Amino acid sequence: MASNHFYHKVYLTVAKIPYGKVATYGQIADYINAYGRARQVGWALRRLQLPSNVPWYRVINSKGFITMSFSRHGSDWIQKKLLVNEGIKVDSKMKIDTKQYLWIPKELPYKE
DNA sequence: AGAATGACGCTGA
DNA sequence: TTCAGCGCCATTC
């Protein structure tokens, strides 16, 4: 199915985020030639059934925060725990120091 | 089918 | 610097 292709690209790219690093929703959208579709990246990750082999927890919003939402049914707190387990510091406001942890790939992680 | 929703992000005041 | 407003669009109601 064509729509699943978008999700597949999201998962493929997210899987390339290195251990101990994070990326933003917009970044992922950008890398898969879907500039401006950060929301769809969020939908793709929300669709995952946990536990997943995709490191979904390494994706945060552009402000450097873990996005908190009741609709996530606790996965936001699980996200914090998993990131801390990788040595990433997450403060009490769910803020992450992007200067230190943001993934900056040297090459385009996804190519058509 | 039409409207609302949302794990987002840029812009401009 | 902060923040409301708007664009985005698949999914859900």
Strand neighbour order, sheet with most strands: 1-2
The H-and-E topology, N to C, reads as HEHHEHH
Helix content: 40-55%
> How widely separated are the two ends?
17 Å
CATH architecture: Orthogonal Bundle
Unreliable residue runs: none
Secondary structure tally: strands: 2
SSE layout and pairing:
Blueprint: H1 2-14, E1 23-24, H2 25-31, H3 38-47, E2 59-60, H4 75-85, H5 98-101
Parallel strand pairs: 1-2
The structure holds a DNA duplex (13 and 13 nucleotides).
Summarize this, please?
The protein has 112 residues and is mainly α. It has helices at residues 2-14, 25-31, 38-47, 75-85, 98-101, and strands spanning 23-24, 59-60. Helix 1 packs across helix 3 (38-47) and helix 2 (25-31) crosses helix 3.
Task: Name the descriptors.
112 residues, Arc Repressor Mutant, subunit A, two-stranded parallel ribbon, 5 helices, DNA-binding
Q: How would you describe this protein?
A:
By secondary structure, the chain is mainly alpha-helical. The chain has a single domain (2-101), classed as Arc Repressor Mutant, subunit A. Helices cover 40% and strands 4% of the residues. The chain contains five helices and two strands. Helix 1 (2-14) packs across helix 3 (38-47). It binds a DNA duplex (13 and 13 nucleotides) through residues 3, 6, 24-26, 29, 36-46, 56, 59-63, 66-69, 71-72, 75-76, 79.
